[in-house]
Amino acid sequence: MYTQFELMRELSIATPSKIVLLVIDGLGGIPDISGKTELETAHTPNMDKLAAEGICGLLQTAGAGITPGSAPGHLGLFGYDPLDYRIGRGVLEALGINFPLMPGDIAARGNFCTIDAAGLITDRRAGRISTEENRKRCLLLDGLEFNGVKTIVKAVTGHRFVAVFRGDGLSAELGDTDPQQLGTPPKKVPVLAPEATYTADIVNRFLSEARERLSAHPPANMILLRGFSKKPVFPSFADIYKLKSAAIASYPMYRGLAKVVGMSILETGPNLEDELATLKKHFADFDFFFMHVKDADAAGEDGDFMRKVSAIEKVDKILPQIMELNPDVLAITGDHSTPATMAGHSWHPVPCLLYSKWCRPDRLAEFSEFTCRQGSLGQIPAASLMPQLMAHALKLTKYGA
């Protein structure tokens, strides 16, 4: 069967035109008591202007009714069907902090969390401790050994860290220890395949030791592990699309995702203004930019509706400066929906706006979930966005005679 990647390799051409993919993490929402979503509530005159001049639609990341994580959400935006190309969160976190993974390493993404005297989780993020406090606790866990398997624990940001298990005979076929709810204890690591039993025993011994060593260090007095994985090999983004691509992301995981597909990673600061400055500095050097904005997702996960509204409005305010760079294509979308009313990711399709010098405008009144349902892009799989970006940048030749 002729795949989308094979077709893109055949049709894609290198041109001077430039594409900016601006990802507002967790962009989509559902209405609160006001009857409006966060995007519909936000004052976004610049996005609304682009919606009138561009085309809009909804992106479905991983299939109807499926709630995607951040990794499948972004892989879909990069054109990789997340049902065919899977990657664990642990590897992404490790790559995002430039940790040198070795063949056979098993990486897991970790959260410091808070447990009470009964061992029940009271805060899955340990009050979002500072990165400095994170580093102190990582030192308590780094370098432990069990049956010759070494554990390497490195801070990421805030309450998040990476745990790498290095030794012989390890398997990544393990489930998460995070029950994803409060009032329950952390889980022992689930075994997903018989060959992972030995690895599960190592991880469970590590978890037990971690609980003992962290007991005197609340609020971060326990850990949760997710996304056990080995480093995969994916088809090259540059080979598929003939693009010289760069990622601008302040958070390590998203740099890790971009690195897996072969994008260059640009150094940037922690704020939206820093990312904008990085885009301006390097705009002449690349023809595809993935620019990631985290704040809307963090606010949605915290259930803070108005903070998410504010995060969206901050992005809107910088859009004129992006447009002054004169990109040939600008796409604004999210990797998934994170409704503040649900305080977590959801299955709802994500609004998408595509502006191009060569588009057929929808002339919509605003950029919102409601208007995007009326846009000419329709509701499409996220993996279908890249061909649209390539076409609207005049980077695809004719198919067939």
Compressed to H and E, one letter per element, the order equals: HEHHEHHEEHEEEHEHEHEHEHHEEHEH
- Secondary-structure-based class equals alpha/beta
Number of helices: 14
Through-space gap between termini: 20 Å
Strand content bin: 15-25%
Radius of gyration: 21 Å
The residue-averaged pLDDT reads 95
Low-pLDDT segments, ≥5 res = none
Oligomer: single chain
Sheet with the most strands: spatial strand order: 10-9-11-1-12-13-2-14
Q: How does this model look, in words?
A:
This protein has helices at residues 4-11, 38-41, 45-53, 70-77, 89-96, 131-141, 197-214, 237-241, 252-261, 272-282, 295-301, 305-324, 369-372, 385-392; strands at 19-24, 55-60, 106-115, 121-123, 145-146, 149-155, 160-166, 222-229, 245-248, 264-265, 288-293, 329-333, 350-356, 378-381. With 401 residues, the chain is α/β, with parallel strands linked by helices. Strand 6 and strand 7 (160-166) form a beta hairpin. The radius of gyration is 21 Å and the shape is globular. 50% of the residues are buried. The model has no long low-confidence stretch (mean pLDDT 95). It has 14 helices and 14 strands.
Distinctive features:
single chain; 401 residues; alpha/beta; 8-stranded mixed sheet; 6-stranded antiparallel sheet; 14 helices; 14 strands; 33% helix
Short précis:
The protein has helices at 4-11, 38-41, 45-53, 70-77, 89-96, 131-141, 197-214, 237-241, 252-261, 272-282, 295-301, 305-324, 369-372, 385-392; strands at 19-24, 55-60, 106-115, 121-123, 145-146, 149-155, 160-166, 222-229, 245-248, 264-265, 288-293, 329-333, 350-356, 378-381. The chain has 401 residues and is α/β, with parallel strands linked by helices.
